[in-house]
Design brief:
By secondary structure, the protein is α/β, with parallel strands linked by helices. It is 47% helix and 18% strand. The protein is globular, with a radius of gyration of 17 Å.
Length: 249
């Protein structure tokens, strides 16, 4: 059974399909799903909706329409400010708006799975990697950190997420050398969970994994706090603080 939980908009939709919350980037105006204030606000609202309705036995799946998963911040919107100082302010505004989205994602009391069916670059890669599991399409798309090629530095929380989710042996090549990593290479490096033949195959595998995780029916508060305890530098960069969970056993 499928039903819509959050109001559809031109940026993303949120549906419930059985035990899964399915968050889909759908922007009809930008098939690269670049992160601008409107999309970031929609994502935060959707994640808040998920948290309010999550129960033991559910999981989140994030996917995207088209050949891009998410191509980073919307530099076109930043440059439309008209001058360099104003463009920098808009870029800072987008960076500041992504932080609470990641914090909300890491605080969800349920497992999270990203189905990366196309390019995930820069902030888009950070958004994908912030999920518990990342599945990737093998026939198209890369994970790519272009900051070194663009001559721009990483926000502190970018570096924290990258350092936490990319194994140390691969971190230099992926972030410092700006290597574009395809699915099979990402699996070998330990960055993603698995690679799949098509966009449809990636989403289907992600749904199967999400359903498998949901069947474990973990205690939500404990799951969220254990997740945060695994990534203390990420939590510090995002302003998240651990909670004390009292066992009912």
């Amino acid at each position: 059974m499928t039903h819509t939980l959050a109001r559809n908009n031109t940026m993303c939709t949120l549906e419930k399909r059985g035990p899964l919350f399915v968050l889909t980037l759908t922007s009809e105006f930008d098939d690269q799903h670049r992160l601008n204030p409107t999309l970031l606000s929609s994502l935060l609202a959707a994640l808040s909706e998920v948290k309010s309705q999550a129960t033991a036995g559910s999981a989140l799946l994030t996917a995207a329409h088209g050949r891009f998963f998410c191509n980073g911040f919307d530099f076109r919107w930043a440059q439309a400010a008209g001058d360099q100082p104003s463009a920098r302010l808009r870029l800072r505004r987008m960076s500041d708006a992504l932080r609470p989205v990641l914090a909300a994602l890491l605080s969800l009391p349920i497992p999270t799975v990203a189905a990366v069916s196309g390019n995930a670059a820069a902030a888009g890669a950070i958004f994908a990697l912030a999920h518990d599991y990342v599945l990737m399409r093998a026939d198209r798309g890369v994970i790519y950190f272009p900051e070194v090629d663009l001559g721009i530095t990483l926000p502190e929380y970018f570096a924290a997420v990258a350092g936490a989710k990319i194994p140390a042996a691969a971190l230099r090549d992926v972030v410092l050398a700006g290597r574009k990593v395809r699915a099979e290479g990402a699996v070998e490096m330990g960055i993603v969970h698995s690679a799949h033949d098509s966009a449809e195959g990636t989403v289907e595998a992600a749904m199967r994994l999400g359903e498998e995780l949901a069947r474990r029916k973990w205690v939500g508060d404990a799951y969220a706090e254990i997740r945060k305890s695994l990534y203390p530098e990420v939590c510090a960069a995002l302003g998240l603080t651990p909670k004390t969970i009292v066992s009912k056993i």
